[in-house]
Each structure stands twice: as C-alpha cells, then as structure tokens.
Task: structure prediction
Amino acid sequence: NAGVMQNPRHLVRRRGQEARLRCSPMKGHSHVYWYRQLPEEGLKFMVYLQKENIIDESGMPKERFSAEFPKEGPSILRIQQVVRGDSAAYFCASSLDTVSQPQHFGDGTRLSIL
Amino acid sequence: AQKITQTQPGMFVQEKEAVTLDCTYDTSDPSYGLFWYKQPSSGEMIFLIYQGSYDQQNATEGRYSLNFQKARKSANLVISASQLGDSAMYFCAMREGLGSGGYNKLIFGAGTRLAVHP
Result:
C-alpha cells in the first residue's frame, strides 16, 4: 500500500498523558499536513510541514501541541498533557507539490481521552 | 465569514438517480483550487475531484462532475447514477494562493451527509 500511513488507528489516553501520532507520507511526497476533525464537523487545518521545516502552524494551539517532520522517519504530531477536549480524529495528508496536486489523506487516528 | 459553505446537512437520493451537493466559497484570491472529498462511515478521506480557478472546463471523474460557476462562487458536486456505496459524508474544500505557491492548507466545509436509498 503506497498511500499515506497513519498509526495508531485508535489511541486512548488518560488526562495529563502524552499522545504521539505518526504519519508516513506517500512515497515521493515531501509536503505533510495535519488536520483535526471533531464529531460531525469538517476538518480543520493544524500545521503544514516540509522536510525538517514547519511552514505554517497557524491552526495549531500554541500550547501542548507540536509537530515535526524529520529528515528520516515519519512526521509526528505530539500532544502533551492531553485534556478531554483533545478527543478527535487527527488526519495526516501529503502532496507532491504545492500547486495543483490534491492532498491524499491517511485513515486518521481516533484519539480518545478518558 | 465562512470560506466554504455547504448548506445541505443531509441529502437523500434514490439509487440510480443523480444528486447535486452544493458548495459555495468565498475568496478574493484569483488563484485557487476546489476539491471534493468523500468520507464513508469507516472514516477515511477519499479524494474525488479537483477544479482549478483558471480551468476553462468543468472537471469530471467517472460518475462525478463539478458544476463550477465562478461568478457565483459555487462548485457543486454532481453524482450521476447513485449507488448504495455512495452513502457517505461529502466535504467541499478550497486551497488559496496557488499562483504564488503560497498557502497550501485546505479549508473544509461542514459537509453534507448523503444517503442513497434502494
């Protein structure tokens, strides 16, 4: 499967713990995006990264959330000290370039906070 | 102001009939792209069709076509010959600033839930 790979598919954390969500983009894609989806809502942009660089993090909360896309390995979305309101589906997408190519999405990680 | 508006929270259609899902957008950027995605109950996001703001013709992909009316700022998705497997949430999304290679984020609408009845 050459698609965008996200893991885990489901993640359960207790309040105050850390959540780490992983995303491997499609082969050859160097642009990665993270989105959050609350129940019955559309996806909301969080952050856009290229290899080793954060390009746009305008949609990411200033505290507790961070993202990286290292030279080697998957992109990681990290949520520290999770709270109930962090419960959502987190989607990663990748694209070939920034002009006319569609973003291809992974299957998402469903994060549940107890 | 909403950038992407999908006014139909839910739609019903009979199998084999055509259905139109509405999407209006708001941007002052002359260069933008419009996308439709399908989200079945299993949760994944499936890319359906793309329309660029400078494209002269309406986009088509199999049973999907995009009714692009630039002056009205609408980009409605038309699904012909509906199938039971088309039952899903459908999201319209926009990307601005394509010409400058600028922002690449997608802005999504709230979605329309389509139910196809046998």
Chain B has a mean pLDDT of 92. The radius of gyration of chain B is 14 Å. Chain B is about 0% helix and 50% strand. The interface with chain A takes residues 4, 33, 35, 37, 43-47, 50, 52, 91, 93, 98, 101-111 of chain B (CB under 8 Å).
